[in-house]
Write a structure and sequence with these properties.
Elements lengths: L5 E6 L10 H18 L5 E9 L6 E8 L19 E4 L5 E8 L19 H16 L2 H11 L2 H16 L8 H7 L4 H12 L3 H19 L4 H7 L5 H12 L4 H14 L1
Parallel strand pairs: 1-2
Antiparallel strand pairs: 2-3, 3-5, 4-5
Helix pairs in contact: 1-2, 3-4, 7-8, 7-10
């Protein structure tokens, strides 16, 4: 919703039973879906579908992620580093379809086990990380304010808007921290934490960094500046520190946004 990209799920059947490795499927489908949503232009849509193809005993389950508006097949970062094969198919309407195919018969399964399975996180951890990153992609400052309007009192909605306005007004200041925010609101740090925590479920220091990175993401999406300019505009002195923080919040490097915008601009020209 924050990126104005539609998302639909279209399964062919209510349930399909087969043998597969959840950690590989969650990682692969999750990464593709998150990055397709990120790079699809506003006003277009993405669709996750699942359907059976072929005839028994060679029947397969095909999981597809399709977007409209732009061909993303040339963006290697969408499928880079995945543990299973992915096919990228350009569509005639400037869209793309990414396909993952799973064999229905266990003995025909082509998915390979990672070499160091002991280091692979379990499925709940992967699912939690996926949810966190999806939430980061889809959330904006305005959507947080809208949520406060729906779920809290008008007083708390106004309070959150004031907090956001103060953080945005001091975005370029590296030294703007929780103490400075509390002082601007005429509150103690403890009072600020107690009022802000129920609204955004983050400590104030984490929320300030969250707003910085969300704003940087907006700058990069719009192609207004490069990574270095965005880094300093939102109050990071170190570009490497900014890149690490961006990677933790969104799951990929900030340069991906810039590359995507450059390719789209070249294509339009």
């Amino acid at each position: 919703e924050a990126n104005f990209v539609g998302l639909a799920f279209e399964p062919e059947a209510e349930a399909v039973e087969l043998s597969f490795q959840p950690e590989n499927i969650i990682r692969s489908v999750g990464q593709i879906l998150c990055r397709v949503l990120t790079f699809t232009p506003s006003g277009y849509k993405a669709c996750l579908s699942a359907e059976l193809s072929g005839e028994a005993p060679e029947q397969r389950l095909r999981i597809s992620i399709t977007n409209t508006g732009v061909n993303l097949g040339n963006l290697k970062e969408i499928t880079e580093g995945l543990p299973i094969p992915v096919k990228a198919i350009p569509l005639s309407d400037k869209g793309t379809r990414f396909e993952v195919s799973l064999a229905m018969a266990p003995e025909e399964e082509t998915v390979t086990t990672p070499r160091e399975t002991k280091e692979a996180p379990d499925v709940p951890v992967l699912y939690k990380k996926l949810r966190q990153r999806m939430h980061a992609y889809a959330t904006s400052i305005k959507s947080l304010e809208a949520a406060a309007a729906r779920e809290q009192t008008q007083r708390e909605e106004v309070f959150l808007k004031k907090v956001n306005a103060i953080i945005l007004a001091n975005l370029g200041r590296e030294d703007f921290d929780v103490r400075a925010l509390a002082r601007s609101l005429a509150l103690s740090r403890t009072q600020l934490y107690r009022r802000l925590q129920p609204l955004i479920h983050l400590p104030p220091s984490s929320y300030i960094r969250y707003i910085r990175l969300q704003k940087a993401k907006e700058y990069l999406e719009k192609g207004e500046m490069d990574v270095g300019e965005a880094c300093f505009r939102v109050g990071f002195v170190s570009k490497s520190h900014f890149t690490r923080a961006f990677q933790r919040q969104f799951g990929f490097n900030p340069s991906y946004f810039r590359k995507s915008h450059t390719k789209q601009k070249t294509h339009h020209e």
